[in-house]
Amino acid sequence: MENQLYDYSPLIRRPRLELPNGARLAFWIGLNVEHYEVDKPSTSLFPGTAMLQPDPLNYGWRDYGPRVGIWRMMDLLDRYGIRASVLLNSDVCTFYPDIIEEGNKRDWAWLAHGKNNSILQTGMSLEEERRYLSEVVKTIEEAPVSSPGDGWGPP
User: Fold this and answer.
1) Residues 24, 57: contact at Cβ < 8 Å?
2) What residues does 112 pair with on adjacent strands?
3) Which segments of the chain does DSSP mark as H helices, in order?
4) What is the DSSP pairing of strand 109-112 with strand 30-33?
5) CA dihedral 41, 132, 146, 64 (to 10 degrees)
6) Contact criterion met (CB below 8 Å) for 63 and 36
7) Contact 111, 89 (CB under 8 A)
8) Among 39, 69, 35, which residue's Cα sits nearest to residue 139?
9) Residue 145, SS3 per DSSP
10) Is there a contact between 29 and 108 (Cβ–Cβ < 8 Å)?
């Protein structure tokens, strides 16, 4: 096997996964909470303005998430008592601390998902990648934390 990052493990050789209480179905909510730099080109819904810096049209749909979308998602998840696992850009800790505060109140699981969605993590040496990922994790770990179950959101 050419891949040296992890061992090959075919499904037919793995032990059967047993879920708690005999459950037959498991799911998780993987909620992306992202930050985009305003002056960098990125994924575009409308290519006609993609070369502009800043690109107000395409940036607007990216900026909707932290300003509006996340709060609607919180309301929906609260309504059904669902805890999210958040794929978090570490820049969210800096630019949108209210999101971190409210997520902590809900005891969300924070999963490191890069610094922001404007940086492509390609072409890094192993040491550069290690340093980059360490900084991402450190930023998330050091973000202000409120104690879970402090009266807001589902237990």
Assistant:
1) no
2) 88
3) 56-64, 70-79, 91-95, 97-105, 126-142
4) unpaired
5) 10
6) yes
7) no
8) 35
9) coil
10) no
The DSSP symbol for 112 reads E
**pLDDT tens digits, residue range 31-66?**
999 999 988 877 777 888 878 888 888 888 889 999
Q: Could you list the mean pLDDT of each consecutive 10-residue stretch along the chain, which spans 155 residues?
A: 84 93 90 91 78 83 93 97 96 97 96 92 93 97 62 35
Strand-strand pairing, 30-33 and 85-88: parallel
Sheet holding 85-88, edge to edge: 30-33, 85-88, 109-112
Instruction: Answer for the pair 44, 118: CB distance below 8 angstroms, yes or no.
Output: no
Q: Which amino acid is at 7?
A: D
Q: Show Cβ contacts of residue 124 under 8 Å, excluding neighbours closer than 6 positions.
A: 132
Which tokens in the block code for residue 108?
């969300």
This prediction's pTM: 0.78
